[in-house]
């Protein structure tokens, strides 16, 4: 008995150094309670008594999503905000339909790595490294995979005359999305400042702001 007490006294201080999550009871899932809002640790859990099978089911990738202009693509996503069952599981998905000439412009996912799988068609895809601006590009065909590391700018565009379709999975329930064109030209920074920051002619900046819905 005395030995057990001594062992407990020795181990307890080290237990206090462990992350809280390692001491918490394990649970099978944490369906997002979306109305309560997001937090740095993810969405709060929906009460288990309110969870149904519908929380783990989503059919939004079964058809082409809304068109994103002027890029001629349809995008539908299964991020946590649309698919609450992926909350806390470190996974989500999206579908992109590329019309002929369609392009997913330079963009990044600050919160997750992307794995792209081509379902139909042929497309070019690539990403740019953060330190040396090295570009890695490949031509992808039906059945091909390509990975885009977290946070790096990357792109895809249709190489054929028919619609191309790709599915993406992400290493986060909410990987985020920042499209470079919208970040630069859908804002309210004055055009002369954007011109200085991008080394573009101010008239061209105003033209692009008009195209992407910016002001200033």
From TrEMBL:
- Could you list this entry's UniProt keywords, alphabetically sorted: Apoplast, Disulfide bond, Manganese, Metal-binding, Secreted, Signal
Give the Cupin type-1 domain ranges. 59-206
PROSITE patterns for this protein: GERMIN
Task: Drop me one GO molecular function for this one.
Answer: manganese ion binding
Q: Which residues form the signal peptide?
A: 1-24
Chain sites annotated for binding Mn(2+): 107, 109, 114, 154
Q: Where does oxalate bind?
A: 109, 114
> What superkingdom does the record give?
Eukaryota
Q: What does this protein do?
A: May play a role in plant defense. Probably has no oxalate oxidase activity even if the active site is conserved.
Record text on subunit structure and interactions: Oligomer (believed to be a pentamer but probably hexamer).
PANTHER family assigned: GERMIN-LIKE PROTEIN SUBFAMILY 3 MEMBER 3
What's the protein here called? Germin-like protein
Q: Which organism is it from?
A: Setaria italica (Foxtail millet)
Provide the organism lineage as a comma list: Eukaryota, Viridiplantae, Streptophyta, Embryophyta, Tracheophyta
Gene, per the UniProt record: LOC101781800
